[in-house]
Write a structure and sequence with these properties.
This protein has helices at residues 3-6, 24-28, 54-58, 89-97, 107-128, and strands at residues 8-14, 34-36, 42-44, 64-70, 75-76, 83-84. By secondary structure, it is an alpha+beta fold. Helix content is 32%, strand content 17%. The protein folds into 2 domains: 7-70, Alpha-Beta Plaits (2-Layer Sandwich), CATH 3.30.70; 74-136, no CATH class. It has a two-stranded antiparallel sheet with strand order 1-4. It has a two-stranded antiparallel sheet with strand order 2-3.
């Protein structure tokens, strides 16, 4: 079931019984949402977690569980209108306050937005070098 139909959102929890307390999950977390010390307990701060799932893929002991909870706060993507996972709202709002508009997009639209910007950047760079792409005639003939 999709998140839209159920009104649920995904969060990650570290299963203390399965966790070997190695710290791999914490080391690779891009949002620095995992707190704890090696050989002690670790936990995921859901307010910081961006739900990327990197911690799950890096954990060699399958000790991070995917849990679905009732979603009350959602942001809507400014492009497609789909809800953005509420667990990343605080992270998004910090980026939006800094003027980074791509964080108002859902993950799918963000990927398209980034790809579009990369293509535009490559076009501008090629144009500065005097390269032609066939859609524009080269005046240096």
């Amino acid at each position: 079931m999709s998140k839209n139909e159920t009104g649920m959102r995904r969060i990650y929890k570290i299963n203390d019984n399965e966790c070997k307390k190695c710290g791999l999950c914490k080391r690779f977390c891009p949002a620095e949402a995992i707190e704890g010390k090696i050989k002690e307990s670790f936990f995921i701060d859901t307010a910081k977690c961006i739900n990327c799932g990197i911690c799950v893929s890096k954990c060699k002991f399958n000790s991070i569980d995917e849990v679905y909870i009732q979603d009350k706060n959602t942001l809507n993507c400014r492009n497609c209108g789909n809800p953005i996972d509420a667990a990343i709202n605080s992270y998004i709002s910090k980026k939006v306050r800094k003027g980074i508009k791509s964080y108002e997009l859902c993950p799918e639209c963000r990927v398209c937005d980034i790809a579009e910007k990369i293509s535009l950047f490559q076009l501008i760079r090629a144009n500065k070098k005097g390269l032609s792409f066939g859609w524009r005639q080269n005046d240096e003939g």
